C-alpha cells in the first residue's frame, strides 16, 4: 500500500536523498543537513500545534510504500507564507506610453518586486521518485493535500498558491537569472536558489534591482522563459490547472517560473470531497478509484483505493487492512475524493 503521512525524524535519510534527486531550482529542498532536519522538526510541531489562525506552520508529508517501508515521495503545504520573513515575487505589469503629439503608442511590460502573496498558503515540495511515476500515484500525491485543506481550512491562508519551478538546465544555468547575476546579484543561480531555500533572504532586499525592470530591455532568452516551467514540472502544473489554479502574472524573482493561485474554497477537489462513515468489512468489487484520508492531523493518513460509494448513503465499507493503513475504526469518518 502507498500511504501519505506526516514526515518524522526517522525519515531524514530519505528526505536527504530526495533533496539530492530533485536537483537545483527545487527551492524548498536544499541539500543541507541542518535545514532538512529543522524542516522535519517544524513539520512535527505543526501537525500537533493548536492553531487558531495560520502563521508559520509547515505541513511536510511523505509517501511511503508500506511493503518496502521506503519513502518514495514528498508533498507539502505551508500554512501562510511571508509571516516571519519577506516573500518576494515579480509582478508582471503593463505601462502604456501614448502621445497624440507625435502619434505614438507603446505598451511595455514591467517586472515589479512585491510581497503581494503574504499570508497565502503554499503548495510545495511535490516530488515522486521516478520508478513510482506511473498510474495515479502523482495525481494522488498532489491531490491528497486538498483533502487536508478541506478538513482543516482554518489552519491555512484563504488564497492558495504554488510556485512552479522555472526553466534551468542540468548545469544549473537559468536563462532568466543570467542578467540578474551579471548586473546585480553576482552569485550564480544555484547559490541564489539555495540561499532562498534556506530562508537567508537578506541579500534579496539588498541586491535586487530597486526600480521596476522593463521586460523589453532584458536579453531575448530571459524574456522567452518568463512564466515558463521546467520540463519536469509540467505534470505538476497540469494537475493544479485541473483544480482551477490560474496564473495571475506573478513570477519567481530568480528563474521567472510562474506562480499559480486559487481560493481555498474554489479548489475543485476541496469542493468535491465528501465525508463518509467507515464500516469495516468485505469491500464490494468496483472500478472507481478514490483518494481517501482520515480526518486526523497528527495521525493524518491518506491513500488511494477502489471504493463503492453511493450518492444516497453516507457509509462506506473499508477492508480491515485499509482501515488499519488509514488509522480509522468502525464508525469514524473519512474524507473521499474520486481520482
Ligand atoms: C509532479 C509529479 C509528482 C507528478 O507525477 P507524474 O509525473 O507521475 O504525473 P502524471 O500523472 O504522469 O501527470 C500528471 C498530469 O500531467 C500531464 N502531463 C504529463 N507530462 C506532461 C507534459 N510534459 N506536459 C503537459 N502535461 C503533462 C499528464 O497527462 C497528467 O494530466 P491528466 O491528469 O490530465 O491526465 C512528478 O512529475 C515529479 O516528481 N516531478 C519532478 C519534481 C517537480 O518538478 N515537482 C514540482 C515542483 S513545483 C512544486 O512543488 C509546487 C507545486 C505543488 O506542490 O503542487
Ligand atoms: N521558481 C521556483 N524555482 N520555485 C520553486 C519550485 C519548486 C517548488 N515550488 C518547491 O517546493 O520548492
Chart the SSEs and their pairings.
Layout: E1 2-6, H1 12-22, H2 33-48, E2 58-65, E3 70-78, E4 89-99, E5 104-114, E6 121-128, H3 137-151, E7 159-163, H4 177-185, H5 189-198, H6 202-207, E8 213-214, H7 220-224, H8 234-242, E9 246-251, E10 258-263, H9 268-272, E11 274-280, E12 289-294, E13 302-306, E14 315-318, H10 320-325, E15 333-338
Parallel strand pairs: 6-7, 11-14
Antiparallel strand pairs: 1-2, 2-3, 3-6, 4-5, 4-9, 5-8, 7-10, 9-10, 11-15, 12-13, 12-15
Helix pairs in contact: 3-8
Bound molecules: succinyl-coenzyme A and arginine.
Describe the structure.
The chain is an alpha+beta fold. The chain contains 10 helices and 15 strands. It has helices at residues 12-22, 33-48, 137-151, 177-185, 189-198, 202-207, 220-224, 234-242, 268-272, 320-325; strands at residues 2-6, 58-65, 70-78, 89-99, 104-114, 121-128, 159-163, 213-214, 246-251, 258-263, 274-280, 289-294, 302-306, 315-318, 333-338. Strands 1-2-3-6-7-10-9-4-5-8 form a 10-stranded mixed sheet, sandwiched between helices. It has a 5-stranded mixed sheet with strand order 13-12-15-11-14. The chain is elongated, with a radius of gyration of 22 Å. The two termini are 16 Å apart. The model has no long low-confidence stretch (mean pLDDT 96).
Number of strands: 15
The percent of residues in helical segments reads 25-40%
**Helix-strand makeup class:** alpha+beta
Strand order within the widest sheet?
1-2-3-6-7-10-9-4-5-8
Which strand-content bin applies to the residues?
25-35%
Order of helices and strands: EHHEEEEEHEHHHEHHEEHEEEEHE
Shape: elongated
> What's the tally of helices?
10
Distance between the termini: 16 Å
Give a quick account of the main beta sheet: strands, pairing sense, barrel closure: 10 strands, mixed
- Note poorly predicted spans: none
* Distinct bound molecules: succinyl-coenzyme A, arginine
Radius of gyration: 22 Å
Mean pLDDT over the residues: 96
EC number: 2.3.1.109
InterPro entries: Acyl_CoA_acyltransferase, Arg_succinylTrfase_AstA/AruG, Arginine_N-succinylTrfase
Protein name: Arginine N-succinyltransferase
Pfam family, one: AstA
